[in-house]
Amino acid sequence: RPCSPPRLRRGSASHRACLIARYNFIYAKERLEAECILRRYVCNLETVQRIIYIACVESFRAAKMAFWKVKINVKDTLAICYRGGPTSLEVAVLDYIACHKDLYDVCCSVHEVVCCMNRNPKLPCPGELDFVVISALIRELCCLAYSMQTLIPPLDIAYGVDGECFNRNMYYRSFDSDFAAPFVAYHVWPPLIEDGTVIVKGEVVTKK
């Protein structure tokens, strides 16, 4: 693609707000739609919620890896004709990627996530279940995670570990939690963070 002037970063604050709102919308609506789809194949709600949590984590991981590859290619291309310093080049690269969303092959990321989940031994699901049934959710998460990498600083999710101590600054307890339990039994949704600060809390189930 020939060099073209990137969009100015003056709208980054509103773009950031839109991405955060989109993350909340996926949690409130599309996550629940994916739950309904999975309940046709899996009776246990905990297993369904674990599947969706892993789908979110793997989607962010795949999208960030794809973004890293695109960023390297764009940076090499722009560096040839760019006359600014390294800091302004970095901003120009991010703006260029934000403008040219077609550089991202989201279908490749969706396929990668689905294959990864189908091979995951921690997901105790029937053999006939192919996680392609929630590919719509995975696609939305991949596109969102990719766009979040164009911000300065980028938005990301925090990865949780089963059995960790419950942190009220990072998580809400799910309605079916034991509210006296100090440890996380499993994660329902990851928190959104920016430069180490929690922007949107995640959701966990706590049990003794």
**Biggest sheet: strands, sense, closure?**
3 strands, antiparallel
Count of runs of 4 or more consecutive helical residues: 5
Task: Find the count of extended strands (DSSP E, 2+ residues).
Answer: 6
β-strand amount? 5-15%
- Residue stretches low in confidence (pLDDT < 50, at least 5 long) are 4-8
Cα end-to-end separation:
56 Å
What is the average per-residue confidence, as pLDDT, rounded to a whole number?
90
Helix content: 40-55%
Strand pairing plus helix content: what structural class? mainly alpha
Protein name: Mitochondria-eating protein
GO molecular function: lipid binding
Subcellular location: Cytoplasm; Mitochondrion matrix; Mitochondrion outer membrane
Family: Belongs to the MIEAP family.
